[in-house]
Design goal:
By secondary structure, this protein is mostly beta strands. It contains 1 helix and 13 strands. A hairpin with a 4-residue loop joins strand 12 and strand 13. About 4% of the residues have low confidence.
Length: 192
């Protein structure tokens, strides 16, 4: 039997976008978001129902591919190192000015298939670092970023505003264990 995951969805148009690193230009409210080519993709997830101190078993970002699925792009996955990630703004360098987790995942993206969902690498270390913070509370917001790592090309994925097809913004999938304080056991929490 396969492991399912808790899914947290981008909830508004201002919860995803990208920053052009060379000039700080913020692009929120567009139908697609670029990965690579001197950009940082950001996806903010509201109401992340993971208890403080939960043991993260697996986590990944699921994205819907819209353009250029086989271009060579190298990236670094990061999370914002904060208890409750604030909303994204159009203030220049909004993403760059945020403090990121020590945990990171660097990868050259494998080939994707156009107009399909693709799962990114395991980012459990990023999620673990955030939910292990003393001030983290279940229901807080968490932001995941995909920072370009020297690419000269880009790929494009669906944003919240994408309507062809609809409901294709990023999804954070997480499986985790919660300690049972009465019996010193851990329970695997999953949701379809």
């Amino acid at each position: 039997m396969g492991m399912s995951c808790c899914e947290f969805h981008v909830a508004t148009g201002n919860d995803d976008g990208h920053e052009r690193v060379n000039d700080g230009n913020m692009a929120l409210g567009q139908a697609t978001i670029r990965i690579g080519d001197n950009r940082i993709l950001g996806a903010r997830f509201q109401n992340v129902g993971i208890p403080q101190g939960a043991q993260i078993i697996q986590a990944h970002l699921r994205i819907y591919v819209k353009e250029r699925p086989t271009r060579t792009v190298s990236v670094i996955y990061e999370a914002e190192d904060i208890d409750d990630s604030p909303v994204f703004t159009t203030t220049p360098y909004d993403f760059s000015n945020r403090t990121m987790t020590t945990a990171k995942v660097a990868i050259t993206l494998p080939d994707w298939t156009l107009n399909t969902w693709e799962d990114g690498p395991d980012i459990k270390g990023l999620v673990q670092e955030v939910v292990s913070r003393a001030g983290w509370t279940s229901g807080n917001a968490m932001s995941i970023f995909i920072r370009d790592d020297g690419s000269t090309d880009y790929r494009a994925v669906a944003a919240y505003e994408n309507t062809s097809p609809p409901d294709t913004s990023a999804i954070l999938c997480v499986s985790y264990l919660v300690p049972d304080s009465k019996k010193s056991r851990a329970w695997l929490v999953t949701q379809d």
